[in-house]
Design brief:
The chain has one domain: YaeB-like fold (2-Layer Sandwich). It is built from two helices and five strands. It has helices spanning 7-16, 20-28, and strands at 2-5, 32-35, 41-47, 50-59, 62-71. It is globular. 18% of the residues are buried.
Length: 77
């Protein structure tokens, strides 16, 4: 499945030194994933003492990454 990045997600990835490889790994093999209140998919991947959280939208044959950030908290609501 093709992965597309919003300008916002690309900017945050540069700021936070998060590679496309790390994002795609979180999307393909998340440690935890859930649907957010807005209907987007949150995929979390454990990295040392924190999680990489990728917020994305799925449509037909592509995944659109909306934002990416590090977190130590996991909220599934």
């Amino acid at each position: 499945m093709a992965v597309e990045y919003t300008d916002h997600a690309s900017s945050r990835m540069r700021q936070r030194k998060i590679s496309k490889r790390m994002v795609e790994d979180a999307l393909k093999r998340p440690d935890l994933s859930f649907i957010t209140r807005e209907g987007r998919v949150a995929s979390l991947k454990k990295r040392r003492d924190k999680f990489l959280k990728v917020i994305s939208e799925k449509s037909n044959d592509k995944i659109r990454v909306v934002t990416v950030y590090w977190t130590r908290r996991i909220k599934t609501w």
